[in-house]
Amino acid sequence: MEGKPMVYFKSASTPHAKDALHVSVEKLMEKTNVVEKGDVVAVKLHMGELGNTGYIRPILVRKVVDFIKAKGGIPFLTDTTTLYGGRRGNAVDYLRTAAINGFSIASMGCPVIIADGLRGTDETMMHIDGHDIAVATSIAEADSMVVLSHFKGHGMAGFGGAIKNLGMGCTSKRGKMWQHSASKPEYDAENCILCRKCIEFCPADAITEEEGHILINYERCWGCGACTVLCDQGCFSLPSQWIQKFQKRVAVAAKAALQAVDGRASFMNVLMDITPRCDCCSFAGKPMLEDIGILASRDAVAIDTASYELVCDAAGKDVFHEVHGIYGMVQVEEAEKLGIGTGEYVLESV
User: Fold this and answer.
1) pLDDT tens per residue across span 178-223
2) Using CA of residue 112, residue 109, residue 291, residue 23, what is the dihedral sign?
3) How many CB atoms lie within 10 A of CB 332?
4) Which one of 20, 142, 266, 300 has the fewest CB atoms closer than 10 angstroms to its CB?
5) Is residue 1 part of a domain?
6) Are residues 94 and 153 in the same domain?
7) What pairing do the DSSP bridges indicate for beta strands 6-11 and 346-349?
8) Which of 62, 71, 63, 81 is nearest to 40 (CA)?
């Protein structure tokens, strides 16, 4: 691509019916289209944990599906199982949750396929910069991909957008574990009330109690960070140097996911219901600022950079850093170093 990549923007302001966001999806898709006739197209999105209400609205996703079909593509909605369990830890639970949240073959007009299989082990290995990354098989076998990301805060990455959706969302459990293994939590007993929720929830069985003391077995720990969210007393935290290592691994995995589809991907970031935490939580949380709109691009780095800058401009500060104490652009800057895209862009309203 010559020159700076384009990032197309539709404001959340809709004073007339013709300005409706779902109407604008087709315009945004047309600007960034990668679909060729006959393509089997992975529509990658987070369909929300059970109880969460902040995920991308189904009507917007349906418009993407309809556009792909109009171009002669064969779309399927997809995501991968979670490392830490919940109601998306296997394909059966995830499909039930997706249907409750509005994503089914009936509502979307295309199948919903959990890309890493029944238990998160269906994977295709991609060799990237000295690393073997386990990409979910159904994504690796797709001809092209449309990545739909709800731009919001994240307790380990600072924020989640296109890079996070690619890196974490397109990998199997093994791929996720490699990324998370760079971020082991620390435990501070000062406020601990020994409620034992961490012991009961830990998916790796890495947390135990001995004589009234909570212990972490770091050899067993996956680094998923669930304990940092689960603990109401704030006893678990992630050191900044480990968080940055995690963010950089997310960028490597994002590159692997893009390589799996030969770079044939387009991106749409939805800057609405910008919540403090990820859609993996069983609650959404109050949005941190008013809705901004929808962005679309062929460049993952450019769209995440534009999204971050629009949020910071609207808030007058880095709201993600204020909430999590994490500089979320580490993952994006690392992705640029890896050649995924560029942080310089041209913003054009549609």
Assistant:
1) 999 998 999 999 999 999 999 999 999 999 999 999 999 999 999 9
2) positive
3) 31
4) 20
5) no
6) yes
7) parallel
8) 71
